[in-house]
Amino acid sequence: MAEEHTPDSHRIDGDEIRKDGKEEINQLARHVLVIAASNCDQNPELILEYSLALSNFLLTGFSPTELDFPAANSMTNALTEAFDTKKVVVGPAPCSMIDVDDTANVITCLRLLGRNASAIKTLEALLARIQSNIYRELSFSANCNVLLTLLYQDAPRDYHVPITNSIEALCDVWWTAIGRIKPKGNLSALHPTLQFVRAALKLVELTENGGLPAFCDKVMKARIAICLYQACFRTLLEQDGNGSWNSSVEDTAHGILILSEARKFDLFRETREQIDSAIDRAVKFVEYSKTSSSEERHSAQKVSYASSLLTEAFRIAALKASAIQPDAIIGSSLREDTTAIPKLLKLWRYTPLFSATPEWQIRASMIEGTLFGPVVRARRLNIFTRKGVEEDKYFDIIPVAWPTCNNRTRTFAPSCFLFEGMMAALLNYQVDEWIEAVAGVNYAGHIPELRQLIDDVIVSISEEKSVNGVYEALWEKSAANGIDESTNGHHVNGTTADRHSAIDEASRREVLVPLTKFVTHALKHPSILSASAWDRKNVTCELRIYLQTHVTQSEDNMLLKQQKFTEGVMREHFFRWVRTTSADHTSATYTFNFISALLGSWIENGEDCFPSTQEKYYAAAACQHLAAMCRMYNDHGSAVRDHDEANVNSVDFPEFGPRAIESGSSAMVSKKEALFEVAQYERSCIEEAFRRLEGHAAGTRSADARARKSRQMEIWWMFYNVTDLFGQIYVLRDIGSRLTVGNGVPS
Fold first, then answer.
1. Are 360 and 221 in contact (CB under 8 A)?
2. What is the per-residue pLDDT across 447-474, written as a single tens digit (0 to 9) for each?
3. pTM (two decimals)
């Protein structure tokens, strides 16, 4: 076993670097490679680790000329000879180690050093081992290195198919990662992020300069933009107050390298000042910090990827990168429309949730939100056509609401969760519009028939393993589903009336088609299907209650038009209404249970999201209080619109006094103030329920179970913040869509 020599005794400190910065950094890099070459002579196994140091230098911006000296040439020769391409063994021949990750990294080194013949031979051997379906089985690190080596070939277009396979696999991993992607061996936790940023940014550069075909798939293009932006921006947000990342030289060096790449990225034009400042503070930290002990040793059977020499290599590369200003800006083709951001930014700053958040952070998070636009827009009208309503003002708000809350709390929930949250919010708005403008209109005078249709659709889809043929059966059933209003569909003797629907075919189809699509989306979502039986049942039950409550709201609106809504001793009080019919109508209870099933599927491996009796109760309480608060905030903001459109609003209840004659009167202002105060009470109840959930989860479970629950609760708090944000926005302004169909208003 050979001892590894380290650079500590020959360390050049920060003061020396600044005398002649560029040349001193080059000397440091050569010094590291001299020691690496010496160590490799004694222990061939170290060639893999030091190839990582060499590739890092080259990818950072060191030219082969700057590293051209006998020791480096010796190391390059060792790399060339280390791979037995004739036998297609991927790894150093003496060790017979099969490792796609290391092989791809060595190919990149050979290519950047001008050893093209050796690089091509090894690349051909590597690609022969990787079939198209294997990219999704490779580790994140291996895929990054494979992608990088393909992108740095003379003709990357020749490798367009494997490049596409690789970037799709990488984005899938990033998109769905519940926590931080784990690095290989003992490398920095930020190493996977650095690898991905380098590879994705190089890919974007090649598509923009013609080296690769432009992105044809708009959704895939948006996913690449989202993942790349998050990788850079989250790194910026994670920097500690002392300029470091985790007070670690290696982590901080990685942070500098990532942000040095980020300042090449067009989407960070607005954040360039903050990135430069972060790099400067990080450089001050690494210039004067020492790397780890010089007494590390390596086993001939295992590479640790954690030597002080490698840490020093990353430190030197970071110092080099920090001094390089980008020649050109990359990624303008990924930018989405940001014209709405100034107005939204002003609105966000007025909310209590974001009043203390730096403006640049809100703006940067909103830019991230705009990148989700194409992904959400691709499904915007997949279910509902939005007939009979004005422009959806909420569409600009939904994609930016989730990233701003996610980044504000540094939750960094996975992109898939943000997307599902956006789609849930979008569909909930559209359900509200559809009930009021389509279903309520088409089935006016036939409400029991509409209720029966909703139940039939939910039962049929929930019980069928395949939805094929369900629509045809439902269509036939709806045609024969006429219900007598006077008897609620039953004869006096209890037998069902033999009637045909009075609703014409076109009107029935306008209701049945989107209803079937929406229920299918909710109940047949792949992650819902892999959730526990308890969580799936809750989604089904709450979905039915949600849709049926919308019908109840339509009935209440009709009573309000007739000025009969609050008449009679049997009418329920506001307290009961706001916690039942009203709360369910907001979609909060259905969405809460939908999210529970998602998190149970993703984090708890298909077990109950809330496993114990106490957790189930606290979660249900939090859900109900959240729904009540949502309704109160919603009604506070839409009181004027609801008054004009004759929609039932919280302030219509007798507890708030006589119904206001004018929507803008002083009486209305007083009612809204009272409503806001009780909404704050509901807020305190939500937060207490969440605290109890956290406290119970910290009890007797295993460390792994506690870690999963901790991550889950981080996401739940973020979800609560998003819901709270929408409520605060409603208080400031109404973001619902006004109806364009006729709607009588009581005098």
1. no
2. 899 999 999 999 999 987 565 666 677 6
3. 0.88
